[in-house]
Amino acid sequence: MSNPSTPDPSFLRGLTQRRLGRRDAFRVAGFSAAGLALAACGVKGKGVARPTTSAQAQSEVEKYWAGKVKNGHVDFANWPLYMDPDHPELKKFTEQTGITVTYKEVIQETTSWFAKIQPQLAAGQSIDYDLMVVTNSIQLTQLIKLGYLVPLDHEKLPNFTKNVGERYKNESFDPGNVFTVPYASGMTGIAYNPKYIDTPPTSYAALWDPKYKGKVGMMSDSQEIANFGMFMLGIDPEKSTPADWEKAAEKLRQQRDSGIVRKYYDQSYIDPLAKGDIWLCQAWSGDVFQKNLSDGTDLKFVIPDEGATIWTDNFMIPKTAANPVDAITLIDFFYEPTIAASMAEYINYVPPVPAAQEIIRADAAKATGQDKKTLEMIADSPLVFPSPEVYAKLRTYRTLADATEQKKFEGIFQPITTS
Amino acid sequence: MTEIQAGAGVAGEATPDQVPAIELDEVVKEYVSHGEVVQAVKGVSMTIGEGEFFSLLGPSGCGKTTSMRMIAGFEEPTKGVVRLHGQDVTNVPPNKRDVNMVFQSYALFPHMNVWDNVAFGLKRKKVPDGEVRRRVGEMLEIVDLVGREKRRPREMSGGQQQRVALARALVNRPRALLLDEPLGALDLKLRQHMQIELKRIQREVGITFVYVTHDQSEALTMSDRIAVMNDGLVEQLAGPREIYERPATKFVAGFIGTSNLLSGVARAVNGSSAVLALGPEDRVIVPIKEAVAEGDTVELTVRPEKIMISTERPEGDLSMVEGTVSEVVYLGTYNSYAVALAGGAEITVFQQNVHDSTTTAERGDTVWLSWQPQHSYALQ
Amino acid sequence: MSRVRAALTPYALIFPGGVWLAIFFVVPTVVMLSLSLQSGNVADGFVFTWNWQSYVDGLTNYHDQIIRSLAYGLAATLIQIVIGFPVAYWIAFKGGRHKSVYLFLLLLPFLVSFVLRTISWQFLLSDNGMLLGPLKDLGLLPHDFRVLATPYAVIGGLAYNFLPFMVLPMYVALERIDPRVLEAANDLYANKFQTFIRVVFPLSLPGVFAGVLMTFVPATSDYVNASVLGGTNTTMIGNVIQNQYLVTQDYPTASALSFTLMALLLIGIFAYAKALGTEDVLEVAAR
């Protein structure tokens, strides 16, 4: 129980720190602005045929990069607190290349970010950024389909080719990494508070267990709950069909209507979990890890036996970028193993560069005290460096092919959370 | 300052065998303002008779309104007793007192029409509907508002609102009606008309009126008796004629009408009058009430209209002084002269234009002022 | 010349506000109306097709949320009147020299961001938090009792978050009542209770009316409280609209729902004004 005279530190932290805004957190912010911006500008879009053959892709790349030169500067848009606030990696980059970086934490959520940049990109105007990080999502698929992204020249990405783990290449939402390359990954699994739960849940069935009635938290994101509903029914979400969706939705409705679900959360689930308002919930791996590190909580994260999804935040260059060469140079810089390690040490999400693990181990060996313990923990964490057994259970999101499919999908799952 | 009880021989006084309508007995009211105790009323006693038109007259801040609010029950006296018809009501709340009030700004209920305003008190007293209708109707007739029952206060003129306020209070047939500067917001013409109206209504209903005003002419016109108040005390309590003709104090003399003040050393004292030394040719005789010794300084007052002005020294047993005309103002029915005496005092004289409109004297002329000694009063 | 200027002055005065409203209210409203009748999707673009289907879909799928929003808004408004009136009354009549201090104290919590204030309720009302925890420890409440993620939390949050907009107009109406009018009632044999019922309350009605308008409308269309304090089956129409805009990116349905809500609120306001006799009430307010 918290002492009434002193605010719960986790509460204050929750108000001020990074939970606000990562991924789909706080949809409340920026709603009207985004909506009206779109409304006022009118909404225009036009599908662009995706290059279907590698030869076609190659010609697109050549066409774009021809004559592009280094300008000495790059504007980088990222999520809040997705990098050490001192930006040691960016400083090192400037030292090495002479390219200066303006780093802005302007992306609060995928949806509103998309709503913000879409009209400008549609009009062929600059969005003021050369580089941005977007989660694999419906919006990312749309960015690609609408032709808003620069086809990446892999010749300018030697570190990517050399250092990035095979499973982060060639992902279903962008085969061949034509437009995107990974920034960091995380898993969606079950988090629980061992203070209230004696037997660690190993299956999705725990989230449907009536003994946890009113103490289960689910996510408000349609794809996230859809995945859980499908895993519960033994369906691989990546390969699911609309018929599977209906079945999963029925399962999720039953979970809701029997009062098991307390609430559908955005990223704000972590504090209620720590406080005991909910005992177990859908969660993102990095959140649990960081919460334990920063607040000394003992929350647990499990990847259920049935499997789990892995998602990836990705680098991409908007079509109207002024400094694409500088941007791609910076992207590749992040795949140097030491840089990847340094990033993972701070953000605690899965780095796309497997070699980072050994470097963190080496750093741990050199460090002392609390730092040593923390670094060891990170290096050994299956959540930052999933083992092959874990990887074997991981699936990616179902990529929704077009607007019709997207509408169908949302139409099935959104009413569950907006009941 | 001496306190003046309603004495014998005063007009309109309650007859001893009758219970007085209102009695204030040594009433004191103190406020705490900014940490300091302020006495608004410093010990006031008065007895107001049944059916009397009684005025509390004085400048603002003199305690007249506070005194009235203690009668109504809005203020509780710090000390002293308030009686209504012999009953001690000092701690009785306003809604349990059989007196009603007409407020300065009327305080009509803005959300009710005329009828509902007037019927308010009767309904609270649970008077049967039929009787409410009858009495409200009658009262609207008395105040001449028939046909305007459905009007809202803000749709009416000041005079009409005033009459609604009056009706709203009178319809309850209170034992006494309290009126707090009720005509203050009206223009002169309407005020004069309402003065007569009020007087008529009072005669018609026969209820005791207690009337607070700072307008001396209003008080003189309407009242049976007047309590002149100053600085939380009653300076004089008497009928209008007495107050005007025989102001008891310098304050009253100054506050009521225009007064001339003269002072001089008593040269000879002869029982009920004294001869004052002024200029060498002057002769001033003044009736005195209290013992005055030769050599005492005596102040006297004489009203401007009692003074005659002449170029020759008048004959007879008059008081007379010599002076120089410093100002002549033609005022239609009369002329007003300002005459400077040798001693420095300035005397105002009103002279009626009885014969023709020529003036008796011009500016700079030396004139004689004279008056009957009994028209002047020594002030305490 | 000066007559021309005098004639133009009123227009000059209304010009900045008029332009502001035209650009930031009228234009978006028209665009939104147009959007609600378009069909298509973000990727392929939207085309105006007189597509009334969005209205049909919106009402079919979300009538529960619309009714719930109106019910929550109404409940919150009633709670605000019950809580707010005594506060406004006390400040207006008993506040004395410190009225402005009390008003400031009333507003103080509202200097904090709306969202943060609502989140702080999450902290206060947590299942084992500083309010419920001790009561549960003492056995006064069952262990599975909760306030958060229930309709009560949402309604409570709505009532709290819009409280000043209820209290301030009521305060203004009460404050302008001439104290002598109350004395007059007292003088005319009304006791305190009767004075309140017959005089104070009727005279405060314009304030209550304004307060209801200023709280019911935003409370009904709110989405923050439901998303922060609600649970399952507490979603309000504001959340649905927001979701339709940002997540599903179904702008026509979102616009159609916005318009439906706007229409319902306008009808409600007019009915309410009619029933209360606005003109009479407002006349009193104008005094």
From TrEMBL, chain C:
Its main location: membrane. PROSITE patterns: ABC_TM1 (PS50928). Belongs to the binding-protein-dependent transport system permease family. CysTW subfamily. InterPro entries: MetI-like, MetI-like_sf. This is ABC transporter permease. SUPFAM superfamilies: MetI-like. The keyword tRNA-binding does not apply. It is a multi-pass membrane protein. The chain crosses the membrane at residues 12-35, 70-91, 103-124, 152-174, 195-217, 253-273.
